[in-house]
Amino acid sequence: MTESKSKVGFIGLGLMGSSFAKNLQKAGHSLVVNDLRREAAADHLVAGAVWADTPKAVAEAADVVLVSLPGPPEVEAVALNPTTGLITGLKPGSVVFDLSTNSPVSVRKVQAALAEAGVQFLDAPVSGGPKGAVSGKLAIWVGGDETTFDAHRAVLDALGDQVRYIGPIGAGSVAKLVHNSVGYAVQMSLTEAFTAGVKAGVPPTALWQAIRQGTRGRQRTFDGLAEQFLVDSYDPPSFQLRLAHKDVSLACQLGRDVGVPMRMINLVQEEMTEARNRGWDALDSRVFLKLQAERAGVEIREDPAALKAILDSE
Fold first, then answer.
1. Which residues lie closer than 8 Å to 211 by C-beta, 6 or more apart?
2. Residue closest to 34 by CA, chosen among 79, 82, 67, 74
3. pLDDT digits over 170-197, tens only?
4. How far apart are CA 206 and CA 193, in angstroms?
């Protein structure tokens, strides 16, 4: 039986999960579905899906099961409940993909429990939001057994256009948490400086139009890491630390002048000051990022050619 014609189980038909399930059906997969609310499955049932009353019933009917749930407690309950959970119905050799944003500790716990039953569990969180869930334009980062991923990635390809194996179990969840936390931190920093700019008299739309065409505005958020931080090279500098410290200090002063708290921007100034005290004035402005690597106890030094190949390929 080919995978495209096998029955896929899907649990969790919420804002994201409902669209995922519809896209699986559009791709030709036959579905058995479950949710806390049967009415959430109305459209899927009309399109040919089969309803299952419990996760156990889903597991008994499908060899590949996907779950899309709010978080760790819900995933653990669906997977490990001793009477109605997936673990009570899955056959040896079955596969479960967890599309939820989950805890690495939790997914490793579930993986270990299901492994004892001969079942492969992989974390596969998604990034793209509700619009991406509808359009299929989203990223899926997978952690777990790579052979299992390769054998069943067609199911994930029906959901997203950027499906990527990251590493062992929990790696997908780590990638998702890094991505989301950075996104909010960047937004907070932008908002701090932006509100200072508006209070200083620049119209919001004009300010937004201006800064989005600057150096950082034109660059994808994570691409800049490849220039100095990931290769651990800050000499020769693109822009010296002493000059960047001056710029950030002026921005902090602007905040004080107009009475706008700028906690994160002030923290950047403090980090740069510490880096200057190391004697790094003439190195690249991003050399202060080494301080965090030191605090984390990690050494990061990737091959520049490999990073360039990644950037050039996208």
1. 194, 217
2. 67
3. 999 999 999 999 999 999 999 999 999 9
4. 14
